Amino acid sequence: MRKTPSLRLSNRLISFVTLMVSAAIFILFIGGTISFKQIGNEYLEHYLTGVVNVVDEELLHPEEAESMAKWLPKLLKASSVVSMELSSPTGVVYSFQTLAVIPDGSLLSTNTLPLQMNKGYSITFKSVPPYSAFAYSLGALFSITAAIAVIIVSLLWGVVWLRKQLHGSELLEERGRMLLAGKLDDYAVGNEEEWPATASLALDSVITELKDARKERSRFDTFIRTHTFLDQLTGSANRVLFDSKLESTLQESDSQGVLLLLKINGWEDLVEEQGKAVGDELIVEVGKQLNNLIQRYSDSVLSRYYQSDFALLIPQQSLKEAKVIAAQCLKIVEKISPPKSLDSDNWCHIGVSMYVSSERRGRLMDELDMAHRSALLQNNNSWSLFKKQQQLTESLGSVRWRNLFDAIFEQEQLVLYKQSTFLFKDNGLETLHFELFSRIKDENGVQIKASRFLPAIEQVGYQIKLDIAVLKQVFPLLADPDFSQHHFSVHLQVKSLQNPVFVRQLKNRLLQTPRAQLQRLSFELTEGQVVTYLDAVRPIAKLLKGFSCQLVVEQAGRTIVSTHYIKDLKVDYIKLHRSLMKDIHQRYENQLFVRSLLGACENTGAKVLAVGIESKKELKLLKELGVEGGQGRIFEAEVALFHQQEKISIPKRRNRWGK
Predict the structure, then answer these.
(1) Are the C-beta atoms of 192 and 167 separated by less than 8 Å?
(2) Residue that is last in its domain, among 83, 100, 127
(3) Among 130, 345, 490, 532, which residue's Cβ finds the most Cβ atoms within 10 Å?
(4) pTM of the model
């Protein structure tokens, strides 16, 4: 990948211009100095040649040669000659040495010139160069000084002018850097001063088209998932999604709940007599009322199973609660005024059945059908419960749940389990992190999974206490030398992130933890809660990312939502819901959903992970689809982090009526 240059274009141009001008000044200065020195040497040589000619002529007349010793020293002193030797073939004829102090003998210039008229004679001069005693003279060198000053001033003005001209290119370059850094939304529209303007306008146009393409891609992905898993008339789940959720629920250990099948009696005749529009209006109204009913139950699923049939899946409910739900369902549906062609007292019948883990989906649907027939035989709006042989686990009431939670949190007996999450590599598996699960034990020492007690946690409003208890155990693990190589992933409830006190405590704890430890910590949020409370999650996600923690969105695909949150929150990993993994090699609709989510994560940095992989066929297909990691019992089962005591001591309730 190409790297962006660290030096800006304007700085490079200014440096180049400054270097060229400085080099020109330097060359001019060196050339002037050499020329000045050369002129001085030529002047001295010319002057000494004149002295040699005079001496040569004087030597031709003996009477004049005798007087040479009188006037020649004065002439030599005036010419800055330090010494002179007149030599002949027989030896030195005449010698002159000045008495003046010479500061540095190495500066003397030595010249030996032959006499033209007196063959064999030569004169050797040692003289001071004419420029050695010169000092700077403003008058003499004013023109050169002024020229250099003009060049420097012009250079400074040119640099300022060049910076102004290149300011637009700097803005465009800075915008490019920000776009490469991922800040597309903040720099989608360029400054009017950007230059070249055509490049800026082209960049604006490309970014606009890119945003539109991303929105269209998100809408298209949502459209695919919606038409694959949702009913187009009511917006509830279709039969495919309902069967997938039911299969996944039945695979979970210790799971139980209630199934309801509501059928509208005489809907086909209604469509024939009054038209499909009237029938669809009734279906929409019934679906709306049922959707309002299941909102109070977490992880519940409402499906338009057939044209006039609705199926409801409400997990972690007891037999007593199932009867209450069936009665409430019938009550709210009876408030709807059916069309005249339907008997207002005999148009709605509900079949109810309970399920436990490891049951077959087909058998449960047969039980619902038999229960519905039993209700139909009553000839009025009614519901009927299919009686089963196996006993369901007794469900605790809200008061007993609250007492159990209070005892667990006070005695710090929350049990943490871990399961490894792996990344798929060419040479095998690479451990990404250990996902931590919460479990509790009741007063009898029976372990309860989170899927069962989380609805009760929400019912009594203890989400914040649960998250505090989990984090209280996790942060010491980060500092424990025995877990120094472990990366942990912790679940958080969005309800906790909406509490200012919890957020402040979390921030303080993050500030007190070294950055190296925080890099080994990930936080997982449920996709449905993230999309519903996106505005509340956004600042918390930014806070966690600022502390080098990783953000994971789990249960992707449990509900059909838009995927714009992936880029908005800069999610690191997305974990698919385990219901999508069951026999995915045989379910093309689930494969389509995974492909759609992988496409939504492209160019966002988010990696898609699969959860609940149970077979090699599922693992092989997921790798072929492009899923980058996963977890499940095919790799590693869940194991407890620490051993906890077997039983929880719960204070007995006071007998208010005892004596």
Answers:
(1) no
(2) 127
(3) 490
(4) 0.64
pLDDT in tens, 189-214: 888 788 778 888 888 888 887 777 76
Instruction: Annotate 535-590 with DSSP letters as a single string.
Output: HHHHHHHHHHHHTT-EEEEEEETSS---STHHHHHT-SEEEEPGGGTTTGGG-HHH
Q: For 237-360, where are the alpha helices, taking DSSP H only?
A: 239-251, 267-274, 276-294, 319-334
Confidence of residue 643 (pLDDT cuts 50, 70, 90): low
Q: What is the share, in percent, of the chain residues with pLDDT greater than 90?
A: 26
Number of domains making up the chain: 4
- Show the beta-strand stretches assigned E in 42-197: 81-88, 91-97, 109-114, 122-127
Range of the domain at 305: 231-385
Count of Cβ atoms closer than 10 Å to residue 482 Cβ: 7
In a domain, 406, yes or no: no
The answer to whether residue 523 sits within a structural domain is yes
Residues 336, 190 share a domain: no
- Beta strand 447-449 with 301-306: parallel, antiparallel or unpaired? unpaired
Measure the CA–CA gap between 65 and 58, rounded to whole angstroms: 5
Question: Which pair of tokens denotes residue 23?
Answer: 């080099």
d(CA 91, CA 655): 145
> Are the C-beta atoms of residues 571 and 565 closer than 8 Å to each other?
yes
pLDDT at 482: 87
Let me know whether 624 and 478 are in one domain: yes
* 401 domain residue, yes or no: no
- Residue 366's identity, in one-letter code, is D
Q: Do residues 107 and 235 both lie within one domain?
A: no
610 Cβ contact list (under 8 Å, min separation 6): 575, 576, 580, 581, 618, 622, 627, 629, 630, 631, 632
Sheet holding 348-356, edge to edge: 301-306, 309-315, 256-264, 348-356, 382-385
